[in-house]
Amino acid sequence: MKNRVEMRDFILEIENKFPVDQWKVNEIHLWPIIRIKLFFYLINKIDIKNNSKAVDRDLNHFKKKSKYHIIKRKTKNYIKKIIGFLNFLSWYFQLTKCKYLFVGSDSHRVNHKNKRYNRFFDPLIQLNNLENSYMYFEYGIEKDLADYRYKNIRFHEPQFNKLKIYVKLKSKKYKIHLNQYEDFILFLKGSNITKDFADKNSKKQFKHWVNSIFIPKYIFSKIVLNRIKAKQIHFLCYYSEFNYALIAAAKKLNIKTVEMQHGPQTSIHLAYGSWSRVPKNGYSTLPQEFWSWDKISANVIKCWIKNNEHHKVRVVGHPWVDYWRIDNFQDKRFILYSLQPNPPSFEELFSKPILNLITQTKEPWLIRLHPRQLDSYDKIEELLRKNKIYTKSNLYIASHEPLPELLKKTKLHLTHFSGTTIEAAMFDVQTVLLHKIGLKSFPELIAQNKAFFLDSSEPNFHHQFISILKAQERNKKHKNTYYCKKYNFKNLFKF
């Protein structure tokens, strides 16, 4: 396997060989969890080659830390356990009923209006006057709510540890069905690339994970959802351990689940595209509905949901883009370079051809860090200063202003294969893609001349880029043809 197309084909081969849709714990489907875990394992193994040692070191550190915490938890005395349980009860009884639950992370937020503003959910909440009928569940560690300026944010994941003993006792009645799972592991062991995955996910190990971690989180989720009585749950990035449990619990309680698009939804992103074996009644660990930004993204999902009765897709537009988009755009004079975490590597992000491009073009640049790259800010600033292009690159502004505000000022957009390509097209800004994954991710935009692929290692890269830039300058301002429809977000909430 060399690329994401081959990753996709490998996983589709697995779906063809094994009864993956029958792998369950009681009525809860397990294949979506395994499939997406395998997908990201392959990305880490194949795409992120340069950082493999660092990743392994981090994982080893995590294992050591986990063992330490296991020992620490086991040595906690009875009084501390009681205090933890009482703390959970205090948190639990402060939960109020709400119609809509929004589940996301701080990485989906920006600094806006003197608060941490969720750029996908907050516009929907405002437009639909949901201020008195919603709650946020932020995943991850608990943060100071003063930074958010919200009254209705809850951090649910830390509360799980306070109830873990109780939910583990309740999990014993669940039975796991993994027909031909051993054959699946043998198949993975036949490849050097997936052998490590097979060794760490044997039937015994996987069943232990289901019994000791997943099902307790599922039971915890049911307890919490029964308390708040939500009618509809919205997710950003549904594919996390706790979110699978929330989705499965919501299905059991007949609560509608929705995944809101936050990036590319393509046939080679296997959380969204290319599902070949889907039960007629859908997967209980996948969202019921997918809300997409555009028809291109929605069509990726339509390809696999057409033969089942559970999953649906809706084109709802991009709430954050519509929040900012106006007909009379500001003067476009910047080149916007949207970075992204591995892949590509740091060396690919700032290769010699790209640094030369920044140096030699007359336009000022906006170099925008991905939210997960902010800890690399000093390193990137040092590199830009060393190459004497810091004053031309507007690093701070580009990394702290909202993306739509940047796109309104952008003449041409540059990225490797980021989902900002879609958002740029919504502002009628063309994108130069620098990574071959971009070719597979955005074929429709390339066909519409909304995006172009250039290989920065080619000798004529600079000349090709300048040609695209000049062609953009020659084009007269015209109305947006890609994002021509303004969607009515008020039709999305019925309860």
In brief:
This protein is an alpha/beta fold and 495 residues long. Helix content is 46%, strand content 13%.
Which features does this protein show?
single chain, 495 residues, alpha/beta, Rossmann fold, 2 domains, seven-stranded parallel β-sheet, five-stranded parallel β-sheet, 23 helices
What does this structure look like?
The chain is α/β, with parallel strands linked by helices and 495 residues long. The protein folds into two domains: 4-76 and 158-321, no CATH class; 328-474, Rossmann fold (3-Layer(aba) Sandwich). 46% of the residues lie in helices and 13% in strands. The chain is built from 23 helices and 17 strands. It has helices at 4-17, 31-47, 52-74, 78-93, 122-127, 157-160, 164-170, 181-189, 195-200, 203-228, 241-252, 295-305, 319-324, 346-349, 352-360, 377-386, 390-393, 395-400, 403-407, 420-426, 436-441, 443-447, 461-474, and strands spanning 24-25, 28-29, 100-104, 109-112, 115-118, 134-138, 153-154, 176-177, 232-235, 256-260, 289-292, 312-315, 334-338, 365-368, 410-415, 431-433, 451-453. The protein has a seven-stranded parallel sheet with strand order 7-6-3-9-10-11-12, with helices on one face. A five-stranded parallel sheet has the order 14-13-15-16-17, with helices on both faces. It has a three-stranded antiparallel sheet with strand order 2-1-8. α7 (164-170) crosses α10 and α10 crosses α11 (241-252). 36% of the residues are buried.
